[in-house]
């Protein structure tokens, strides 16, 4: 009877309290502590962002009822619930067991760390309502605020905690935790200035040095974000001063943050470099070498020691400790260095590595992705230019010059192969080195197996070693006796040549390479044309996309020295005129200006130079005039002609400001002709390739806002519409029949005085057109009007027709899915 939870006796209360505290709650608390420790151990902080006060990763997947993300928290919750069920003494509206508030708080904490925040709130609210005078009331309030912050109810949490602090009678550790959570709430709301004093208070009152180091570090980060580097450094100095009292990761990152704040103009660079070097050489800092090496790289880059900086960035990459953002910073920095050197192929490779390490769908990712995409054309055309230039150089040599060139090359290749083969054999290799023309070994070397004598390379090396040690001895008994004198050491090159059959290998013969040089004039002309166009494209890309005017000028100037096709000469000179104008090089600008106006006086380029402000829209040779012609064809639904014309003029006016307008017009025409997917793809192309033009920005806006709304191709319920159309469908070659129906319906509407109705000829696909009657207010009304036109002797409109709501008509025009609509209608209305 003394264990009963129904009697409010002294022994009952104490026995149940002891049973709850030292059995269930003790085991529950042990499991909870283990679970919390495992969370902290597995959590990876992102020191590139402001650290959260609490180390807990929010997982996206939702647990089903009865599931738990961590078995320790499941056990803690189970023990707390068991204590409540077995030892609760709720008698006459009051809980008599003093351990029950502890049980409910443990229950709430376990649910909180199991990321079930609403059930956690219920547990904390129970404590607040049932134990208003208990000694755990502040703890319950703090944890309730934590749960509200996780549920994005930051304002509620701030109000509750501030009210608790103002009442006073709060212990230092509770004050620290409450202040820290208010600071976290303000950080979540991006109100950093308001968060700062609370984080400072939290760091001041906490007695846990590990927590103190974290809070001081967050304080420094906040000062940095608020542009107070001196105050930030003072906070980081406090972290460093804690030394071994707090985790070393905070100290190292405090050093790194101070290094980021270093003033390269007024600071002591020698002492700063010594500090970074000491950090790198300290054995205890090995887990953080990636961060330290990166910062040393930043130091050398800031001092224009680019080669040394690149060395340290690469060291940081090799020492990486799974910090993807740091890896991305290393890769993008190296990529930018090569980009600035105009080594775009290498820069593109580094940007590719960067994108792998970055989180998609971020602004930074999208910007870099667009920059990387722009490099594709540069890499392609640079490769074409370099390769074709090399081949054409060989084409222009005499036969003697070619033979001498490749003889020198193959001699060097042979000597290197012999040396590489000997070195590889000594190191246990099984073949000789490849070169840039060939892959894999030759002949028998490829068949090397595990057995010694199956490997010709190893056999050759064995022969060489035998002769070096014993000489060239006869095969006879007692061959090792000293009186059997050696006949002489073998020549290493001969042995190697014997082992590898170098003399028979085609890669070491000049004739192999001479045979690959093109001799047909058609192939040579193609190489020349492709090379010249590559130089022209490079000039425009460097000018338009990257604003690299010196590089653009160099490529176009080089093109003009290579006797290019006539169609490239004048555009190249005009672009050089514009480039030198941007560079402020008046001499070269005037040179090309005078050249164009003197030698091409009737050209459009000369007119633009002489009269830059003139309106050329009426000039039949101007891009503007051509654009207006295409737009008129677009309005007349001549989409095939518009698309073909745009393709032609995009090539003709490559590099002109009209090109983005033509691309956007083409995208719209593709959408009208081919439907939604073609329109979406074409819009994306315009947005990515002309991001700085008005048309590119407009395409991006449409792609981001309008396209998602048009994505759905499903049909709406006809009953929900009050506007319908009557549609007659004709093949593209049935123009006369379509015109007859159009004229008949027009006269019928006039005769019947149906002023609210109209008729039109609409494009659907290149193979199918519509005659459409608009202004009908119901499906039955549309079908009834179709019957009237069919049966009335005055009209006799015989072609098949169907009715469709205005909204569904938009769907079939956008997605070109008329067949799906007809099928759906026949299923729903089989009669």
Polypeptide structure, described:
By secondary structure, this protein is mainly alpha-helical. Among the domains are: about 1-45 and about 65-115, no CATH class; about 335-395 and about 520-550; about 400-475 and about 485-515, no CATH class; about 565-615, no CATH class; about 625-710, Tetratricopeptide repeat domain (Serine Threonine Protein Phosphatase 5, Tetratricopeptide repeat, Alpha Horseshoe), CATH 1.25.40.10; about 720-830, Alpha-Beta Plaits (2-Layer Sandwich). It contains 35 helices and six strands. Strands 4-5-3-6 form a four-stranded antiparallel sheet, with helices on both faces. A two-stranded antiparallel sheet has the order 1-2. Helix 9 (about 210-225) packs parallel to helix 11 (about 250-260), helix 27 (about 625-635) packs antiparallel against helix 28 (about 640-650) and helix 29 packs antiparallel against helix 30. The longest helix is centred in the N-terminal third of the chain and has 33 residues, at about 10-40. The radius of gyration is 41 Å and the shape is extended. The termini are far apart. Mean pLDDT is about 85; it is low at about 430-450, about 485-500 and about 615-620.
| Overall average pLDDT | 83
How far the N terminus sits from the C terminus, by CA atoms, comes to 81 Å
Number of strands: 6
- Give the number of helices: 35
Order of strands side by side in the largest beta sheet? 4-5-3-6
The chain-level structural class is mainly alpha
Percent of residues in helices? 55-70%
User: For the report, how would you describe the main beta sheet?
Assistant: 4 strands, antiparallel
Radius of gyration over all CA atoms, rounded? 41 Å
Which consecutive residue ranges, at least 5 long each, have pLDDT under 50? 430-450, 486-500, 614-618
> What's the CATH architecture name of the domain at 720-828?
2-Layer Sandwich
Shape: extended
β-sheet strand percentage: under 5%
The level 1 CATH classification of the domain at 720-828 is Alpha Beta
Determine the CATH topology of the domain at 720-828.
Answer: Alpha-Beta Plaits
């Amino acid at each position: 009877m003394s264990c009963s939870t129904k009697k409010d006796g002294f022994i009952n209360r104490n026995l149940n309290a002891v049973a709850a505290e030292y059995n269930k709650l003790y085991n529950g608390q042990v499991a909870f502590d283990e679970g919390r420790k495992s969370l902290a151990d597995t959590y990876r902080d992102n020191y590139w962002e402001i650290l959260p006060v609490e180390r807990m990763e929010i997982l996206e997947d939702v647990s089903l009822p009865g599931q738990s993300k961590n078995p320790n928290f499941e056990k803690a919750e189970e023990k707390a619930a068991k204590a409540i069920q077995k030892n609760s003494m709720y008698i006459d509206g009051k809980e008599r067991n003093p351990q029950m508030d502890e049980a409910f708080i443990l229950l709430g904490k376990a649910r909180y760390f199991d990321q079930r925040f609403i059930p956690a709130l219920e547990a904390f609210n129970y404590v607040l309502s049932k134990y208003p005078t208990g000694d755990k009331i502040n703890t319950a309030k703090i944890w309730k605020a934590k749960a509200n912050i996780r549920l994005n109810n930051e304002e509620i949490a701030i109000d509750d905690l501030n009210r608790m602090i103002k009442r006073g009678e709060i212990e230092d550790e509770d004050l620290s935790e409450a202040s820290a959570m208010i600071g976290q709430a303000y950080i979540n709301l991006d109100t950093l200035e308001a968060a700062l004093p609370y984080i400072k208070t939290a760091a001041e009152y906490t007695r846990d040095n590990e927590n103190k180091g974290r809070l001081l570090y967050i304080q420094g980060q906040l000062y940095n974000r608020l542009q107070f580097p001196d105050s930030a450094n003072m906070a980081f100095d406090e972290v460093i001063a804690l030394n071994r009292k707090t985790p070393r990761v905070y100290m190292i990152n405090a050093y790194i943050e101070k290094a980021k704040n270093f003033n390269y103009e007024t600071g002591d660079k020698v002492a700063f470099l010594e500090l970074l070097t000491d950090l790198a050489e300290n054995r205890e800092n090995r887990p953080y070498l990636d961060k330290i090496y990166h910062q040393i790289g930043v130091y050398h880059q800031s001092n224009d020691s680019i080669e040394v900086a690149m060395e340290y960035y690469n060291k940081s990459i090799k020492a990486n400790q799974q910090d993807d953002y740091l890896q991305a910073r290393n890769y993008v920095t190296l990529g930018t260095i090569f980009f600035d050197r105009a080594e775009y192929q290498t820069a593109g490779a580094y940007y590719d590595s960067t994108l792998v390490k970055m989180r998609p769908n971020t602004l930074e990712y999208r910007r870099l992705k667009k920059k990387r995409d722009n490099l594709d054309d540069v890499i392609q055309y640079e490769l074409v230019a370099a390769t074709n230039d090399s081949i054409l150089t060989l084409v222009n040599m005499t036969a003697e010059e070619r033979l001498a060139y490749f003889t020198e090359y193959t001699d060097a290749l042979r000597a290197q192969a012999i040396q590489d083969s000997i070195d590889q054999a000594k190191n246990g290799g099984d073949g000789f080195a490849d070169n840039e023309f060939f892959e894999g070994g030759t002949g028998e070397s490829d068949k090397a197996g595990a057995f010694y004598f199956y490997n010709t390379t190893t056999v050759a090396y064995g022969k060489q070693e035998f002769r070096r040690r014993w000489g060239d001895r006869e095969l006879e008994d007692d061959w090792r006796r000293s009186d059997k004198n050696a006949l002489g050491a073998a020549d290493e090159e001969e042995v190697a040549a014997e082992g590898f059959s170098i003399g028979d290998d085609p890669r070491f013969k000049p004739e192999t390479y001479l045979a690959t040089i093109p001799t047909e004039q058609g192939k040579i002309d193609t190489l020349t044309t492709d090379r010249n166009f590559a130089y022209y494209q490079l000039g425009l890309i460097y000018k338009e996309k990257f604003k690299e005017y010196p590089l653009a000028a160099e490529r176009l100037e080089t093109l003009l020295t290579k006797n290019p096709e006539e169609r490239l000469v004048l555009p190249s000179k005009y672009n050089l005129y514009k480039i030198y104008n941007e560079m402020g090089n008046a001499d070269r600008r005037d040179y090309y200006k005078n050249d164009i106006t003197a030698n091409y006086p009737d050209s459009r380029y000369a007119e633009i130079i002489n009269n830059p402000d003139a309106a050329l829209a009426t000039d039949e040779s101007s891009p503007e005039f051509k654009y207006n012609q295409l737009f008129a064809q677009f309005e007349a639904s001549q989409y095939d002609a518009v698309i073909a014309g745009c393709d032609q003029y995009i090539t003709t006016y490559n590099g002109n400001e009209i090109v983005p307008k033509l691309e956007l017009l083409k995208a719209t025409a593709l959408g009208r002709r081919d439907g939604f997917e073609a329109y979406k793809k074409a819009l994306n192309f315009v947005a990515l390739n002309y991001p700085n033009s008005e048309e590119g920005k407009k395409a991006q806006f449409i792609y981001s806002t309008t396209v998602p709304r048009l994505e759905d191709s499903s049909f709406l319920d006809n009953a929900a519409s009050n506007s319908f159309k009557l549609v007659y469908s004709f093949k593209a070659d049935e123009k006369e029949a379509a015109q007859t129906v159009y004229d008949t319906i027009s006269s019928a509407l006039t005769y019947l005085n149906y002023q609210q109705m109209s008729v039109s000829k609409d494009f659907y696909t290149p193979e199918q057109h519509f005659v459409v009657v608009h202004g009908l207010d119901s499906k039955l009304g549309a079908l009834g009007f179709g019957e009237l036109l069919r049966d009335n002797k005055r009209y006799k409109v015989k072609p098949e027709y169907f009715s469709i709501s205005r909204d569904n008509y938009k769907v079939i025009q956008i997605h070109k899915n008329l067949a799906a609509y007809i099928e759906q209608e026949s299923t729903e209305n089989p009669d």
